[in-house]
Structures are given as structure tokens and as C-alpha cells.
Amino acid sequence: MTEHVLPTHTNSLGGVFGGQIMAWMDLCAAICAQRHSGAVVVTAGIDDLTFERTVRAGQIVRLTARMTAAFRSSMEIFVNVEGEDAVAGEVWPCVSAFVTFVAVDAAMRPVAVRPLVLSTDEERVAEIAAHERRASRLAKRKK
Ligand SMILES: CC(C)(COP(=O)(O)OP(=O)(O)OC[C@H]1O[C@@H](n2cnc3c(N)ncnc32)[C@H](O)[C@@H]1OP(=O)(O)O)[C@@H](O)C(=O)NCCC(=O)NCCS
Q1: What dotted CATH number matches 2-142?
Q2: pLDDT reported for residue 141
Q3: pLDDT tens digit string along 24-55?
């Protein structure tokens, strides 16, 4: 997903609002989860995020979403955000996060999603790490 930063997206210092970036991340990840599940999806949670460097008015925000694991009804998506200055030809890391979506029916009941097909060792390693993060999230949820 690509967004152009307009003055309406920025704070008084000309940098994009963190909340605006988070909204774009949520949307980008939702599209990924919806394409995989073929269902309506809702955001269950977003893991920690730390902004490394801002993106300013006139610059570009580049977002990529990749599913790391599909569980029963929930899916973990990794979203990476970069800033880009098309005039200077520069790209830099902005922020990244893991977002969990749940596929639901019309009554907001969770519904099962199809398994994620893993074809590379990198994807298999990412899925193992996703299972570990899920265990830690669910443990926090129980407390
Ligand atoms: C997300 C939601 C549908 C889960 O419903 P629930 O009744 O708690 O259902 P369950 O306990 O059976 O959990 C369903 C799945 O969600 C996962 N889940 C629930 N809360 C979670 C959380 N905070 N983080 C990660 N996963 C979570 C569960 O692990 C389970 O996954 P699985 O089916 O893959 O095993 C419900 O909490 C909800 O509607 N929340 C509000 C969503 C919302 O409004 N989002 C913002 C706007 S889109």
C-alpha cells in the first residue's frame, strides 16, 4: 500500500501523526487477512510498535503486509512501514508491527480460516516464531 503524506496527515512540525500511520497499518494488514480468509475480519490486537524515523508532508509511506501464521480463526500479519522521498531517491525504515485479525461471521462469531501454505524455510521459521508470540499473547489475555 502506498500513501502520499498530505498536510492534513501531519502535526504542527510537519511529521505524519503516529495514529495516521497506525490506521494505514491496520488497513493494510486487514486487506491481507481478508484476502486470505475470504471473510470479514476484525482487529484483535496490535503488538508493540516503536517509530524509528518520521515521514514528512510531501513524502511517501510504503506499507507491506505479510501473513506469518493462520491459526484457527485468527491470523498474524507482519506489517512493515518505510518512508520514501521520491525527490531525493531515499527510503528508510519507519515502524513495523505484528497485527492479529480474527475472521468473523455476520454475528461477529469467529470462523475458521484455511491453513497458510508455507513454501520456504524462511516462512516456516517465521511461523514457528508466530506460534511463540501467540502463546505469549494468550497467556497475557488469561491474566
Ligand atoms: C476478536 C474477537 C472477535 C474474539 O472473539 P472472542 O469471543 O474473544 O473469541 P475467542 O476467545 O474464541 O477467540 C477467537 C480467536 O481470537 C483470538 N484472539 C482473541 N483475542 C485476541 C487478542 N487480544 N490477541 C490475539 N488473538 C486474540 C483467539 O486466540 C482465537 O484465535 P483462534 O481461533 O485462532 O484460536 C472479539 O474479542 C471482538 O469482537 N473484539 C473486538 C474487535 C474489534 O472491534 N476490533 C476493532 C475494529 S475492527
Answers
A1: 3.10.129.10
A2: 83
A3: 999 999 999 999 999 999 999 999 899 999 99
pLDDT in tens, 81-115: 999 999 999 999 999 999 999 999 999 999 999 99
**Residue ranges covered by each domain of the chain:** 2-142
Distance 83 CA to ligand 1 centre (A): 31
Which one of 26, 102, 131, 140 would you pick to mutate in the ligand 1 pocket, going by the greatest count of ligand atoms within 8 A of its CB? 102
Ligand 1 centroid–CA 8 distance in Å is 33
Q: Atom 36, ligand 1: which residue's CA is nearest?
A: 44
Contact (Cβ atoms closer than 8 angstroms) between residue 69 and residue 44: no
Count Cβ neighbours within 10 Å for each residue of 126-140 and write b for 16 or more, e otherwise.
bbeebeeebeebeee
Ligand 1 probe mutation, 67, 72, 74, most atoms within 8 A of CB? 74
State in Å: Cα 35 to ligand 1 middle. Answer: 18
